[in-house]
């Protein structure tokens, strides 16, 4: 404890030094959507020992369908109740891609990335002693993309996934909960905004309530997906669907989140687990995640096939993990009387899903939205599932990229070239 506090004081001392501002050229010519241009600058350490660098790099989204660029930032600084994390890995998620394609409006310029692992290197001033004791400097950690404030009416009831501050500040304005960003460009001093913690960067600031300790037995790279893909799947299966042993489950869309749903369904003891997708290679991979049946919806009607598999009844739980009106309808029509249709896929802003009102009413169909898990309660559970091997992180992560390849990673995601989940290594 004392050594951790001593190290934190050293880090805080050295981080107060500032390097002179440098002009940072940025590639302005854009040819290939979602590619990346990389600046020639790199972070420079100041002082010695355990000192932090004066600057860091982050991947910036500027405007729809333009490439990310890697830019230099002043070292971000945490405030009370926040931790500064040296980022080790960041997952490649469709939520970021929706923002980059302009399908979901978000404040720009912003640093994307919201599925991270890393090392705690500093606590904000006036952070309480219990937080410092729980997350000492040097801790290996994983961060959840929904970062609860811990104080609002929802957080006080344990509903971290509905945190008022997260939606009012981070999702609405791209800031943390004092209404300010922690990111400022090194060349101009102007602000950049934060999609969650802005995790596709060498360092990021995260509210301590959104962070859990990662045991040494779990690798940084694969564990990054715990903060979104697995976190989202767990929220859907545990809280929205409340899957019970013996339930039949259909998952429509078997990307990073959908494939995590399959693993969680298996862990919860579901019986028939039906994976639905349009690509045979994804469906083949789905079997390793726990799918007992697969349906290629490009070749056969998924509703009819699900009814056939379940003896004409439909499934207890259907999960939509794509965010498309067509799959929304498939999801609601695939459940049995009294069944639950759980929607977790984000769609283009303004998209609407249709549902048969009379069937909804007469047959007691439940349509439930689920954005993610509850960080303080669920993230430690997910870490334990991974640590015991019940959730296989190695199977879930199919591809890795370097930090400089981040633009290519999202381009590959956009083109459907990633099976499962990809992770960008920033180590």
Automatic annotation (TrEMBL):
Keywords: Metal-binding, NAD, Oxidoreductase, Zinc. GO terms for molecular function: metal ion binding; oxidoreductase activity. Residues 63-424 form the Enoyl reductase (ER) domain. It comes from the Eukaryota. SMART domains: PKS_ER. Signal peptide: none annotated. Its cofactor is Zn(2+). One of its GO terms (cellular component) is mitochondrion. PANTHER family: GROES-LIKE ZINC-BINDING ALCOHOL DEHYDROGENASE FAMILY PROTEIN (PTHR43350:SF2), NAD-DEPENDENT ALCOHOL DEHYDROGENASE (PTHR43350). Belongs to the zinc-containing alcohol dehydrogenase family. This is Enoyl reductase (ER) domain-containing protein. The gene is LOC100775182.
């Amino acid at each position: 404890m004392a050594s951790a506090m001593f190290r934190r004081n050293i880090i805080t001392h050295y981080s107060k030094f500032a390097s002179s501002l440098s002009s940072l050229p940025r590639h302005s010519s854009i040819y290939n959507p979602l590619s990346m241009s990389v600046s020639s600058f790199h972070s420079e350490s100041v002082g010695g020992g355990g000192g932090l660098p004066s600057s860091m790099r982050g991947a910036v989204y500027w405007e729809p369908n333009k490439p990310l660029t890697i830019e230099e930032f002043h070292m971000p600084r945490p405030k009370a109740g926040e931790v500064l994390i040296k980022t080790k890995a960041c997952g490649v998620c469709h939520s970021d891609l929706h923002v980059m394609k302009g399908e979901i409006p978000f404040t720009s310029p912003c640093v994307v990335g919201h599925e991270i692992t890393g090392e705690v290197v500093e606590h904000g001033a006036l952070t309480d002693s219990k937080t410092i004791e729980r997350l000492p400097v040097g801790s290996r950690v994983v961060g959840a993309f929904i970062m609860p404030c811990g104080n609002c009416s929802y957080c006080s009831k344990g509903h971290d996934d509905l945190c008022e501050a997260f939606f009012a500040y981070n999702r609405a304005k791209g800031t943390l909960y004092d209404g300010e960003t922690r990111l400022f460009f090194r060349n101009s001093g102007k602000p950049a905004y934060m999609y969650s913690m802005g995790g596709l960067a060498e360092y990021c600031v995260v509210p301590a309530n959104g962070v859990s300790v990662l045991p040494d037995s779990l690798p940084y790279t694969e564990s990054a997906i715990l903060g979104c893909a697995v976190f989202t799947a767990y929220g859907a299966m545990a809280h929205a669907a409340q899957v019970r042993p013996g339930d039949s489950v259909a998952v429509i869309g078997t990307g990073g989140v959908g494939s995590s749903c399959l693993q969680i369904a298996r862990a919860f003891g579901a019986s028939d687990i039906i994976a639905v997708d349009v690509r045979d290679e994804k469906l083949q991979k789905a079997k390793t995640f726990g799918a007992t049946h697969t349906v290629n919806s490009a070749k056969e009607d998924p509703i009819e096939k699900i009814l056939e598999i379940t003896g004409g009844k439909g499934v207890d739980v259907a999960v939509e993990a794509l965010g498309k009106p067509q799959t929304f309808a498939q999801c609601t029509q695939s459940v049995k009387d009294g069944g639950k249709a759980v929607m977790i896929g984000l769609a283009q802003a303004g998209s609407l899903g249709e549902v048969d009102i009379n069937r909804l009413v007469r047959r007691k169909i439940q349509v439930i939205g689920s954005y993610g898990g509850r960080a303080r309660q669920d993230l430690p559970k997910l870490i334990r599932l991974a640590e015991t091997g019940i959730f296989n992180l190695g199977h879930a992560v199919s591809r890795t990229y370097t930090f400089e390849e981040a633009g290519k990673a999202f381009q590959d995601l956009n083109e459907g070239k990633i099976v499962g989940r990809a992770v960008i290594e920033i180590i």
